[in-house]
Predict the 3D structure of the following.
Amino acid sequence: MTESTTERTAEIAAAAERLIEADASGVPCAPVRSLIGREDIAAAYAVQEQITARRIDGGATVIGRKIGLTSEAVQNQLGVSQPDFGVLFNDMAYRDGDTVPFSGVLQPRVEAEVAFVLRHDLADGPLDYAQVHDAIEYAVAALEVCGSRVEGWDISFGDTVADNASAGAFVLSGERHSLDQVVPKDVSMEMRIDGEVVSTGTGAACLGDPVQAVVWLAQQAREFGEPLRAGQVILSGALGAMRPVTPGAAVVATITGLGSVSVNFSE
């Protein structure tokens, strides 16, 4: 191993440790771009992989993936211009109407999405639109509680990728619909916090079509050596702007054709 390779490995490990410590302590950290750069995608995903391995070693189970930065509104909020992906663990999952501990997600912000559950693996074949569409068992309305281990959400693309695509928690509606019943790109979304409308959007805002977003993810996941598998939950990305929440907040999103989904935050 050359000196430069050794140095890069050390930087990746240091970035992972910084984010792991922030998560464990509940105290947000400085951006990791000082270690891995703003746009080094390979290094950022290497950090994410180290954090994922640590979570699995600690007993967590991977139950799906999330796609981030799919909405122009969210890209504009964070100053980035391309999507990313992260891992969903079993301890992130909540049911419609549940209460999420406010301290359980650092600097929480909520966004409304279409989520999918897969009935087939997406490991072989062309992974084109037709194959991915057929592999989806059903769609549900979802809320993602994004969280950042980076202080003040001061993130570049490299920071959010390294930080597991700013994943925190997610909530799925119990109302399931096949893709024969709903066309995800045609849905409309309205999200309310404490009764006030704070975000609106459409399915087309998610990379043009939430199913197309899953096509992108399926191809990326296979390229990274961890293909999507039957039974996994896929959060396809925001339909509108994400919004911060405060202790005691009640969030409800309604998505046409999919119904509503809600979550509360503890005081």
Notes: The chain has a mean pLDDT of 94. The radius of gyration is 18 Å. Residues 3-25 form the longest helix (23 residues).
